[in-house]
Amino acid sequence: MTALLRARMRRDRVQVPLWIAGTALLAAAGYAGVVQSYGTVTERQEILAAVMANPVILMFRGLPSGTSEGAFLAFEVLPGLAMLAALMSSFLAVRHTRGDEEAGRAELVSATPAGRTLPAVATLVHGLVANVALTALTALALIATGLDVPGSLFTGAASGATGVAFLGLGLIAAQLMRTSRGANALTVWALVTLFLVRGIGNAAGTPSDDLTRIDSSWIAWLSPFGWAEQTRPYDADDVWPVALGVAVGLALAVAAIALQSVRDLGAALVPARRGRARARATLSSPQALVWRLGSGALVGWVLGGALTGILATTLSAVAVRIAGENPAVSEVLERIARAGSLDEAVITVFFTMLGILAACAAVQTLAHARQEEAHGTAEPVLATPVGRVRWLAGYLSVATGAVVVVVGAAVVAGCLALTAAGGESDLYRVVVITGLGQVVAASVFVVVTALVFVLLPRATIGVAWALVVVGAMLGLFGPLFGLPEWAGELSPFAGAPTVSGGDVDLRGLWWLLGAVAVGGAAALALMRRRELAPGG
Fold first, then answer.
1. Under the phi-then-psi rule, with left for phi > 0, alpha for psi from -120 to 50, and beta for the rest, what region is 219?
2. Residue (of 474, 467, 464) closest to 364 by Cα position
3. What is the largest CA-CA distance in the chain?
4. How many CA atoms lie within 13 A of 54 on its CB side?
5. Which of 317, 348, 351, 435 is most exposed, with the fewest beta carbons within 10 Å of its own?
């Protein structure tokens, strides 16, 4: 047991500390943003009143629990902290269970006295240790800002309990799906669904008379993210939602270990789909193979992009109405988007989120290259006349195509929604230009991921996803956290072209295009001489 636990911690000595440190930094940055942007009770009360007037905002924010600095901080950042913990834990669970089975390591370990179930137990302990560390460091980061100790501890504990719940979910997904790719996809879709369920539960809740607090509906209790928010740090400090998250995570983990003991090694509870006896003619190129392997996941990203485009254009009218009643809302949106009119600001904010979605689709596509290399399935392809450069170029082209398709779906859906609502003709131009800008921004993450894959192949997945998270936090939340303007512009999402007062701001376009061109050429050139790096 001790040896297995040490081996897991050694393999995760970079990835897990990055997730934990990023979560703690987000908490500390969130406090700085609250103090700088909403320093008075009146300002915080105005924002919460605006939130009550538009339940859609609650889909993307936390649960209002008062106007104190701590309670408002939890409203702002607790969903993000819980999501980081959930992603870290679910990826960890799949990597050390189904991932090890795919790589052949689980078979070797099972042949030792460790047997079939002890590796899963070691993974559970490893995940629990990681979440305890995340809880402690996040709480310490908040305590260091001067916030009260109990509320800080409950904020960290709520995040860590969500991580434990998704640790159990990841272990279950590893038993259900035959590949780590399928298990990770299942956990990510479960995460997105449960996050939306939490938002629906909050939006359907009952506001208090002073518009500073919401009592969620029963729907929020169907989600681990809802449990985290029901803790209400810096207000009620309720321990039972934390205990519920931990208990559910442990119950799922026990069920996963039981399933591990009765199924065949390498098999899964969900049977694999039977393949064709002969490949179609359309699979005659490396690009076609990459597209075929990733097309199922891409459908989900495209649907998310289309939904984002619809929300971007349909909510602009709602935001204008609310901002007329509460100028604080207008200030917040314009601070994030750095746009002119409020319509432009709303579209820019949602299309920044779209750029993040497109970058995620691209990173997931390029992560497949590392998985194929680690699992040994890249070797049969490279044994043909397909060379290393052409093989990587196939992934680059498909990842870029994924970005274009996701953003294109949003642009088309947004324009159709504008037409249905009879929107202003100028907004069509804003949608198209902002969408094209996010294509370039997301493409930066395509080439950066490719460079990491070439130079640090074993760190590809962890580093690539960490860079997307950092870029998202700087680009979307940097202004709210009080970061200087230059820090926000380090994110490609914030540097993408936007429309402000009818004028197009192209300042960031040139360095983004230069980064894409130089990064792509460098990745392909370096790939020519790189050796394959199989294994974990």
1. alpha
2. 464
3. 71
4. 22
5. 317
pLDDT computed for residue 441 by the predictor: 92
Residues 6+ away with beta carbon under 8 Å from 490: 474
Q: Where are the alpha helices (DSSP H) in 263-341?
A: 286-325, 327-337
Q: Which residue, among 411, 432, 199, has the nearest Cα to 302 in the 3D structure? A: 411
Mean per-residue pLDDT for 437-451? 93
pLDDT level of residue 208 (50, 70, 90 thresholds): confident
Residue with tokens 């538009």: 54
3-state secondary structure of 499: strand
Task: Please give the structure tokens belonging to residue 66.
Answer: 């008062």
> Look-up: residue for tokens 């137990």?
121
The DSSP bridge partners found for residue 215 are: 206
pLDDT over 70 percentage in the chain: 87
Query: DSSP string of 112-137?
Result: STTTTTHHHHHHHHHHHHHHHHHHHH
Strand partners, 207: 214
The SS3 assignment for 206 reads: strand
Confidence class for position 38, pLDDT limits 50, 70, 90 = confident
Q: Which residue has the higher pLDDT, 128 or 330?
A: 128
Q: Contact at 8 Å (CB) between 210 and 65?
A: no
Cα separation, 129 vs 16, in Å, equals 11
Compute CA distances 164 → 77, 88, 413, whole Å: 19, 10, 37
